[in-house]
Amino acid sequence: MAELTKEQKKELLRNWRAEQKKKYLLNKTNARRLFSHLRKELSKLPCDHTLKHTEQWIDAHCPPEKKEGILEEIREMGGYCDCEVLLNCYERYELE
């Protein structure tokens, strides 16, 4: 594997810094509540590879005008179904 150039390293650092400053539409409190809801629902039945439970929670707890933005945010983190939301989005919302 080739070593990165100085400019490539600077670009990676800029991207990392921008990601660290990113404001998410779903705040930490609501993210915790969503993850708790998903754990509860997925303990009853396995994931059906949709965002069914995620969308139901968003519909019940978030303003309708934010729904598509929150779903886009979740998909950008790798959450394309309910179990992936739990697996891929947890750290991004800094909930460890």
The beta-strand count equals 0
Order of helices and strands: HHHHH
Largest sheet: none
**Number of discrete helical segments:** 5
- In the predicted model, the low-confidence regions spanning at least 5 consecutive residues are none
| Structural class based on helices, strands and sheet pairing | mainly alpha
Q: Work out the radius of gyration.
A: 16 Å
Q: What does the average pLDDT come to?
A: 90
Q: What is the approximate shape?
A: elongated
Can you tell me the number of structural domains?
A: 1
Binned strand content: under 5%
Percentage of helical residues? 55-70%
Terminal Cα span? 32 Å
Task: Label this structure with key terms.
96 residues; mainly alpha; 0% strand
List the helices and strands and how they pair.
Layout: H1 6-21, H2 28-44, H3 52-61, H4 67-76, H5 82-89
Helix pairs in contact: 2-3, 2-5
Describe the protein's architecture and organization.
- With 96 residues, the chain is mainly α.
- The chain has one domain.
- Helix content is 64%, strand content 0%.
- The chain has 5 helices and no strands.
- The radius of gyration is 16 Å and the shape is elongated.
Task: Give the structure's gist in a few sentences.
The protein is mainly alpha-helical and 96 residues long. The protein has helices spanning 6-21, 28-44, 52-61, 67-76, 82-89.
